[in-house]
Amino acid sequence: MEEKKSILEYVPVLAFIASYFLLHLFDWMETTQFLLASIIGTLTYGLLVADLKMEHKGKKWNYRQLNFFIGLLTVFNLVLFFQSFLHWRRMVSNIARVSIMYVLLIIFIAILFRAIRVYSYHKTMLENKKK
């Protein structure tokens, strides 16, 4: 049962990866695919947090950290959009565009994994409080 929980908690990362590879079916720029995949990953994380809040609706609990990570991922999606705009308009050299894109992608993945760990912590604490 514990393995199922850990797999379900990584749904945002799996959604990001699956959507990225599905978006390769279209003939779009790489940065567009990363941007749309990051939006899908962020929305999936938001849905997980919303589901957790609805499941434990009557409990007094501080969801500030979870809300912070939703906001951080949203702001980071805006940063990815501005980087994509630079990429689409070819405002800087190709090496700089691709380097910035991959650095931002690594940062996004790191933030997403940290957000998932915080979500997992809150979920286990709420379930322990339930018992």
Automatic annotation (TrEMBL):
Membrane-spanning parts: 7-26, 32-54, 66-88, 100-121
UniProt keyword annotation of Transmembrane present: yes
Source organism, top-level taxon: Bacteria
Keyword line: Membrane, Transmembrane, Transmembrane helix
The name this protein goes by in its record: Uncharacterized protein
